[in-house]
Amino acid sequence: MERAECMRAFLLLVLITGAHLSPDPKIIFGTKGGRAEFGYFTEIDDCVLYRIHEDGDLLLVNCSQPDSPQPDGYNITCPGKMFSSFILNNLTLSQSGDYRAEKWRGTNSRIKTTMYRLIVCADGDVDLPEEHDITRVADHSAVLCEFNSTLGNGSSLQLYRYINDHPLLVLDTNSSLEDPTSRLKFDLNDSVVIMSEIRNFQERFRISCLMWRGAQCQSVRYRFLELSPKVVFAYEEENVTLPCTSSDFPGQLSWFTPTGLVSISINQTHPQEVMYMLNGSQSGDYSLIIPSVSKRHTGGYECTDVNVMGDTIRRIILFICTKFSAVNVMFSHDESVVMDTNVNESGSMMWVQWYHQKGLHPLMLITQSYDNVVSHQIGISDVRMPEDLMGRVTASSFSTSVNISNLTAEDSGVYTWRVIMSDTREAVCYEGSFRLVYRGPFGVHSLVYRAPVLGCMLLGLVAAVIWVKLRSRKAEQTSGHQSREGQQSGDEDLYDDVEVAEDSV
Fold this sequence. Notes:
The chain has helices at 2-17, 372-378, 447-504, and strands spanning 26-31, 36-38, 46-51, 58-62, 76-77, 86-88, 97-105, 109-121, 123-124, 134-137, 141-146, 155-163, 166-172, 184-187, 192-196, 204-213, 216-227, 230-235, 240-242, 253-257, 260-263, 276-277, 288-290, 299-305, 312-323, 327-331, 337-340, 348-357, 364-370, 393-395, 401-404, 413-422, 427-438. By secondary structure, it is an alpha+beta fold. The chain has 4 domains: 129-227, Immunoglobulin-like; 230-321, Immunoglobulin-like, CATH 2.60.40.10; 324-438, Immunoglobulin-like, CATH 2.60.40.10; 446-505. The strands form 7 sheets. Strands 18, 20, 21, 24, 25, 26, 28, 29, 32 and 33 form a 10-stranded mixed beta sheet that branches. Strands 9, 10, 12, 13, 16 and 17 form a 6-stranded mixed beta sheet that branches. The longest helix has 58 residues, at 447-504. Mean pLDDT is 77; it is low at 1-23 and 492-505.
C-alpha cells in the first residue's frame, strides 16, 4: 500500500512540477503497420538489438553482421548514414514488449546499454507532431486527449507528458490515479481528458494519449501544445502583478520585459517605483511586480530560464489602457441603441472587444474583431454570441460600433468596449463603457406615466390643506372680532345703569 502511494505521489509530482526525470526503460509508441525508432547512435563500431523475454533474450539484429537472418516477423534497419537509430518496420501488435539496444566499440568494449518498452496500438497517429503542428491552448483549460469511440467495460485512458523527449506517465484511469488538485478531468463515456489551470508547464509541451481495452492499446494520439500568452489589461498608476510559478528552475528564472531584464535580487527591499520579481526558490512564485504602471510598460513579458534556450514558463502581454468616462443611455422596451467607440486616433485597428455586465455578474464577451497579427500572437478564438443576444446584435466594420435591437429590461447593464490599435511605434489601448438604463413602457402602469399624475395629486392635496387652514384661520378671526364687539356693548350698558343710579340719588 505504501509503495502504491509513493508511486502515485511520484507521478503527480511529475505532472505538477514537470520534473526533468528520465524513466527506465524508455517508452516508445507505435501503430500497427507503422515503424518504431530505438535510440540515437553516433561513431558506431557495432550495434546489437535484443527482444527481452522471461525465458531468455532474443537477438534481433547484429549490425556487424548485416547479412544474418532476422527472426520471423521482424524487419529491422540498422543505424547508418541514412538513420541514426534502429528502425523496426511493419509493426505488429505482438511486438509490444521490452527491448535492449547495445553499443559496442571493438569486440570487448560495450560502451552503452539502453532499455526500451515498445507499445504498439491498433491505430492512431503515426508520428509525433512537429513544430508546425502546434495547437494553441488557453492557460485556464485545454483538451489533452480526445478519441472518437466510447470506452466500454475494461477500457482505460493513459496520458503521457514528454520531458526531454521521453514520455512519462501522468494519468492512468485504470489505476485510479487521481489528481488531488482536481486539475485533470476525464470522461470515459466521451473518451476525453481535460486539464484545468495549466501551470508549471513550459510554454510548449508534447503529450501522448492512449486508449486501452484490457491489455491491448487500441489507439494513440499525439498533441503538441503551446500555451497562448496571457493578456493583462491595466490602467495608468495601477500596481500590477504578472504571475509566474514553477518548481523546475529554483533560483534560475528571470523576466524579459520591454524595459530590460529583471532578475532575482538577494536584497528583497525595493524602492516603491522600481519593477522587481519575487524570489520563488522556496515558494515557486516568481511573479513580477510593477508598481504604478505607465504606457511605457506596454508590451511582451517572458518568465524564462536565461541559461536554457527555449525554457519559457510564462508569456504575458500587458496593455496599459486610457479609460474614458461612462455614458448613460436610457431606453424603453423594443427600442434600439447604437454604441460607438468614437476612437479617432490615427493607426490601424488590431483588436476590438465588447463586454456586457449585469449587476455584480462577471463581464461576458459578446463580440470581438481582430487582425491576423493578434490572432497569431495571442491565439484568439472566435466568441459565441450569448443566447439572449442572438440575432439582435449587429456590428460595424471591425466592431467599432454595435447596434442592439428589440431591447428588453434584461439588456440593462454596463457594456464595456476595448480598442487596441497600432501606431508607428507601439500598440495603444482605449477603453470606455455605456450604462444602459431601462425606463419601462408608457401606460397607466408605467412609472413614467404615474409620476406626473402622482405629482399633480400631491400638489392638489397640498393646495387643499392650505385652503382648509386658511378657511379655519379666517373663521377664527371672525369669531374673535364678534366676541370683542359684544364685550364692548355690555360695558356701555353698565355705564348707563350707573348714570341712572346717580340721578336717583
